């Protein structure tokens, strides 16, 4: 599998990375055996990065990943984990809270350090200046202590992520649902600021939290009704052509050479096989154009997340 440089870190990451939200049961039940099988298959395919968080399954994702990697796979897989978000509405971005959260993560992951540590979903902080100061400082302290090689932050609002890059000397960021068939603002609105500072950018949720799938999103998906309706229409168009909207969505993301790696939630071997198949097969340009036309009325539309305020739609 192609490896690409992750900003100025010196790490080279696989074009496809595993996302740990699904392993934390966010999209349905998964067994420990299935997790081990999918991680083994991913390593065999050349995948070398897995992204998880203390929040996913309230630690279950990290626990299952740690158990799977302990079975001889840790040296083949880099870990990115996230601290500061503990539950759906519970956050602690203080220095003490970040340390406490991360130390628990290391125990669940059965390792003494990770390659990347991020502050998770910082848009839910109640004091952004404190995030840019205290939270950033503890991340850098943990890096100096050798508990992580690189540090960064993740969130949904691109304006806040851009501010964090400008203020906090980050190595890596994770953005989600902002480079998809429906929304490409990660490249147009954010990537120049990251590239100017050598920050590695990981694109998560390329299928927009399930919007760009035949099965459609979970009930908790925060997208507005018009976006959900347009994505459902795109799925129906693909179904009528004997095609898979999710496969098209993955191919679209893989084709963006400026994004080092695309992270997608993968908890079962069949899901990994589908993502690898999308990587290997050429994109259907005619189908892509027709899907783009269906999604055009909601192109680049996003939604409100957390306490950061920025336009919900462009302009």
Automatic annotation (TrEMBL):
One of its GO terms (molecular function) is D-threo-aldose 1-dehydrogenase activity. The keyword Nucleotide-binding does not apply. SUPFAM superfamilies: NAD(P)-linked oxidoreductase (SSF51430). Pfam families: Aldo_ket_red. GO terms for cellular component: cytosol. Residues 16-294 form the NADP-dependent oxidoreductase domain. Keywords: Oxidoreductase. It comes from the Bacteria. Its EC number is 1.1.1.122. PANTHER family: GH17980P-RELATED (PTHR42686). This is D-threo-aldose 1-dehydrogenase. It comes from Urbifossiella limnaea.
């Amino acid at each position: 599998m192609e490896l690409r440089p992750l900003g100025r870190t010196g790490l080279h990451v696989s074009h496809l990375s595993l996302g740990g939200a699904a392993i934390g049961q966010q999209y349905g039940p998964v067994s420990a055996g299935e997790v081990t099988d999918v991680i083994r298959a991913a390593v065999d395919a050349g995948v070398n990065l897995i992204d998880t968080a203390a929040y996913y399954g309230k630690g279950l994702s990290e626990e299952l990943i740690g158990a799977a990697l302990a079975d001889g796979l840790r040296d083949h897989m880099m870990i990115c984990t996230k601290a500061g978000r503990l539950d759906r509405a519970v956050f602690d971005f203080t220095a003490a809270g970040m340390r406490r959260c991360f130390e628990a993560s290391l125990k669940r992951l059965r390792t003494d350090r990770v390659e990347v540590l991020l502050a998770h979903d910082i848009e839910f902080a109640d004091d952004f200046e404190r995030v840019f100061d205290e939270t950033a400082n503890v991340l850098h302290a943990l890096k100096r202590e050798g508990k992580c090689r690189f540090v960064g932050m993740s969130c949904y609002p691109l304006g806040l992520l851009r501010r964090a890059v400008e203020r906090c000397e980050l190595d890596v960021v994770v953005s989600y649902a902002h480079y998809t068939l429906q929304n490409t603002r990660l490249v147009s609105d954010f990537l120049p600021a990251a590239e100017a500072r050598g920050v590695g950018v990981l694109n998560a949720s390329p299928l927009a939290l399930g919007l760009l799938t035949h099965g459609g999103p979970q009930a908790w998906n925060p997208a507005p009704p018009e976006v959900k309706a347009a994505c459902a229409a795109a799925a129906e168009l693909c179904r009528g052509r004997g095609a898979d909207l999710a496969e098209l969505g993955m191919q679209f993301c893989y084709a963006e050479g400026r994004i080092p790696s695309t992270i997608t939630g993968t908890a079962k071997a069949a899901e990994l096989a589908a993502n690898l198949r999308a990587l290997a097969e050429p994109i259907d340009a005619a189908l892509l154009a027709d899907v783009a036309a269906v999604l055009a009325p909601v192109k680049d539309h996003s939604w409100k997340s957390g306490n950061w305020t920025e336009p919900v739609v462009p302009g």
